[in-house]
Amino acid sequence: MHLIRRNRILRASAAIREMVAETILRPADLIAPLFIIEGSGIKEEISSMPNYYRMSIDLTVAEVKNLWGLGIRSVLLFIKCADELKDNTGAEALNPDGLMQRSIKAIKDACPGMVVMTDVALDPFSVYGHDGIVNGTEIVNDATVEVLAKMSVSHAQAGADIIAPSDMMDGRILAIRQALEEEGYSRTGIMAYSAKYASCFYGPFRDALDSAPGFGDKKTYQMDHANRIEAVKETLMDVEEGADIVMVKPAMAYLDIIREVRNTVDVPVSAYHVSGEYAMIKAAVKMGWLDENKAIMESLTGIKRAGAGLIATYYAREAAMLMNG
Ligand SMILES: NCc1[nH]cc(CCC(=O)O)c1CC(=O)O
Ligand SMILES: [Mg+2]
């Protein structure tokens, strides 16, 4: 018998292909990022992210319930800070009655089972739009880490299940872990943005939250896209410091990094299918060049195939609806 025919057998029908599929995407694999603003009954379009919105807490809670019903089990919260509350200290980030803190409480009250993850970085609160405290043109690592640790405790106090530091400061995972333990939050997890690249693909997000850097760029603290070995080093350090989950970000231009990280660490690996990756598909679909449902499932399955068991994606709702048939 000539073995060449085996491939044709295992691809012969949809049923056989489904039987032998190696990578199966589930709604619970998906983390839904949510952009939250002050007010009530407010749903604002984001021009660079079609069909994605900034929403007030009440509408965000309703969306969380819908997402839970679709089988999604985690959300990742981002808030849009009022300009008058921005400074160079991150004070508003520590406000126990801040928008993030109120959002966490409202979601946990309304949908207790949903895993609430919170973005921890200073850019939404910074007059400079950088992820940390600025001195001249320097992002001051250690002073920033101190604030991030307090910010993380504040989120845990509000009920957050997992802290997601997206800042890339050195040593922040250990500092956050220690601060959480000192305050009794030994059950609050950390999803570290470990291999986060200084990517052009964050543009739409920065529009959404008005958080673009006011000067320079983020290349002094986010990684160079040319580097692979450095990603493994960063990730191993975060695991050593106490990260429960590590993340590679962005995703599609970094599948090799996801695979290398997956093969290296013994904790869950996540990836962030970022705003620019979402916007690219949306734009191509608008031009009639791509089938959106196929592009969504192929992209997200590929990110999982590369090794990410968790995927933060703005397509979480659509993908879950597709998987629910
Ligand atoms: N530190 C903030 C943060 N957290 C997630 C993203 C990007 C998410 C996306 O583009 O979807 C950013 C923007 C940035 O680092 O400039
Ligand atoms: Mg690091």
Automatic annotation (TrEMBL):
UniProt xrefs under PANTHER family: DELTA-AMINOLEVULINIC ACID DEHYDRATASE
Enzyme kind, highest EC tier: lyase
GN (gene name): hemB
Organism of this sequence: Nemorincola caseinilytica
Keywords noted in UniProt: Heme biosynthesis, Lyase, Porphyrin biosynthesis
EC number(s) recorded for this UniProt protein: 4.2.1.24
Protein name according to UniProt: Delta-aminolevulinic acid dehydratase
Segment forming the signal sequence: none
Pathway: Porphyrin-containing compound metabolism; protoporphyrin-IX biosynthesis; coproporphyrinogen-III from 5-aminolevulinate: step 1/4
Superkingdom as given in the UniProt entry: Bacteria
Subunit structure: Homooctamer.
Entries under SUPFAM superfamilies matching the protein: Aldolase (SSF51569)
Family: Belongs to the ALAD family.
Catalytic activity: 2 5-aminolevulinate = porphobilinogen + 2 H2O + H(+)
